[in-house]
Amino acid sequence: KSYAFMLARAWYGKGKYGPAEELFNYLYVSDNQNLAYASYITSIYMQQNRYDEAIKIYERFIKIDTANYRYLDKLGFAYLKKGDFKSATALYNRSLALNDRDLTAIKNLAYLYSADKQSDTAIVILTRGIKIDSTDMSLYSMRAQLYYSKNYTKRSMDDYLVILASGDSSELYLKRAGI
User: Fold this and answer.
1) Buried b (16+ CB within 10 A) or exposed e, 23-49
2) pLDDT digit string, tens, across residues 86-129
């Protein structure tokens, strides 16, 4: 098994998903409680847009460990990619209930709420994320874009200036900051 796992990881690392999937499936069938095997298989499924297959595995692990917010994040992302925003939103909210510092859930929830035209809710969630990690410029960027879209010029400018002060001087930020 260890040789098969090593070989499957090597195939996976080279982007040879066909042979890697075959070996990971062989290993997973022999030990379907092994998260490492399942993680690689679901990663392959997600890259190949086979979301329903990934969802089945993620749901299985959530049944085993209902308190693992990372499983909820992964399942939420599969639903997000599948286009089922309602299920994804519910899962990310459950994840945040388990770990209120989960930045993955915060970012994806903000995306989902903004896609659902609930930008005020998305802004609140991003502000919560910034309080958790004020060095994560992607949170400022997402919030600044939402502020900008709502014509909250001063607020968006403040966030863009934080991003610029961090050393990111991309053209978009400079333009939106009026520089």
Assistant:
1) bbeebbeeeeeeeebbebbbbbbbeee
2) 999 999 999 999 999 999 999 999 999 999 999 999 999 999 99
